[in-house]
Amino acid sequence: MIRLAAMLSVLVVAVSPVRAQDQPAEPEGYRTEDYRTPVPATLTGARVLTTEDAAAIWRDKSGAFVDVLPRPPKPKLPAGTVWRERPHRDIPGSIWLPDTGYGKLAASTEDYLRRGLTRASGDDKARLLVIYCQESCWMSWNAAKRVLSYGYHNVAWYPEGTDGWERAKLPLADVEPEPREGEQ
């Protein structure tokens, strides 16, 4: 009985959410490494959403959802090997702008992000933009901070991302990335 109690206490610790004291403070700039680690509880200038908040916005269609999760790299394969990417699952209606959450962006990637935001917002800097990727991922934090720097006034950051969405048993849809200039 004592052993069972000890095992249960270990299990409770293992599945406990990140405590506030474990969350890092907001950095001045962008995070440029170790992207899959605990994120801050805040993002100055942005509203931080829970899954319940994000679901309400999604149901009301009162905001545009933007996923910034990177596209997985194609592995090195022997010549002639057929490669099929795994489907990318997203909050339905989202626009996927892969690779736009890194701390440093090439000029072409930054331009891709700006064009995608213009499309998602209908060229309205007051339109609500919900930025996300996965839980404990700095990519969405970086991207939301960058979106604010572009002059968007109504930015929400959803730090639980598709992980929280899926845990809540909300629908997901297969999506393709927003085409880059010159792609069809």
Blueprint (SSEs and pairs):
Layout: H1 2-15, E1 47-48, H2 51-60, E2 64-67, E3 88-90, E4 95-96, H3 107-121, E5 129-132, H4 138-149, E6 155-158, H5 161-167, E7 173-175
Question: Can I get a quick summary?
Answer:
The chain has about 180 residues and is an alpha/beta fold.
CATH homologous superfamily label of the domain at 42-72 and 88-179: Rhodanese-like domain
The top level CATH class name of the domain at 42-72 and 88-179: Alpha Beta
Gyration radius from CA atoms, angstroms: 18 Å
The N- to C-terminal Cα distance equals 63 Å
The number of distinct helices, counting runs of at least 4 residues, comes to: 5
Structural class: alpha/beta
The CATH architecture of the domain at 42-72 and 88-179 comes to 3-Layer(aba) Sandwich
- Unreliable segments of 5+ consecutive residues: 1-16
H/E series: HEHEEEHEHEHE
Explain this structure to me?
This protein has 184 residues and is of the alpha/beta class. It has a domain at 42-72 and 88-179: Oxidized Rhodanese, domain 1 (3-Layer(aba) Sandwich). Helices cover 32% and strands 12% of the residues. It has five helices and seven strands; from the N terminus they run αβαβββαβαβαβ. The protein has helices at 2-15, 51-60, 107-121, 138-149, 161-167, and strands at residues 47-48, 64-67, 88-90, 95-96, 129-132, 155-158, 173-175. The strands form two sheets. Strands 1-6-5-2-4 form a five-stranded parallel beta sheet, with helices on both faces. A two-stranded antiparallel ribbon has the order 3-7. The model is unreliable at 1-16 (pLDDT under 50).
